[in-house]
Amino acid sequence: MVGIFDNIVAPSFPIDHPAFFICLQFEFEAAESGDPMDVLVKLVDDDARALLDFTASGEVPRDVSGGPTRLFMQFQIPGLRLEKPGDYQLEVVYNGRHIGEERLPVILAQVPGN
C-alpha cells in the first residue's frame, strides 16, 4: 500500500474528509500469470463497521519478459464522512485470503485556547 499520510487529525467530529486515492501494488510470480484474481479492499472503523469497500476482478497479467509482474491498482474515494475518532483499518483480501492491512488512526486534535 502506498500512502502520503499516516493518520487523520480533526478538531471536531463528524468530519468530511476530502477526496483521496487508495493505491495498492501487487507482485506476482511468472507462474501465476493467467490465474484468476479477486481483490477486496475495505476501510473499517474500530467497531469493525465497513465505511467503504471496493472489488476488482480479472486475471493476473503476464509480464512480457517472462518474469514477475507488478500490478498497480488505485481506488478513488470522492470524500468520506468520519463520525468519530478511533483506530480505523484498511484491509486487503486477495482471492478470499486476508493478505494485508494498514492502520489509520483518526485523532481528535487538542487545539490550545479553544
Measured distance between first and last alpha carbons: 36 Å
Poorly predicted runs of 5 or more residues = none
- The largest beta-sheet arranges its strands as 1-9-8-4-5
- Give the number of helices: 0
Radius of gyration computed on alpha carbons: 17 Å
CATH topology type: Immunoglobulin-like
The CATH level-2 architecture is identified as Sandwich
**CATH class designation:** Mainly Beta
Helix content: under 10%
In terms of DSSP E residues, the strand content is: over 45%
Structure classification: mainly beta
Mean pLDDT figure: 90
Helices and strands, in N-to-C order?
EEEEEEEEE
| Total beta strands | 9
Descriptive account of the structure:
This protein has 114 residues and is mostly beta strands. The protein has one domain: Sandwich (Immunoglobulin-like), CATH 2.60.40.10. It has no helices and 9 strands. The chain has strands at 8-10, 15-17, 20-28, 36-44, 50-59, 69-77, 80-82, 86-94, 97-108. A 5-stranded mixed sheet has the order 1-9-8-4-5, with no helix packed on it. A two-stranded antiparallel ribbon has the order 2-7. Strand 4 (36-44) and strand 5 form a beta hairpin. It is elongated. 4% of the residues are buried. The mean pLDDT is 90.
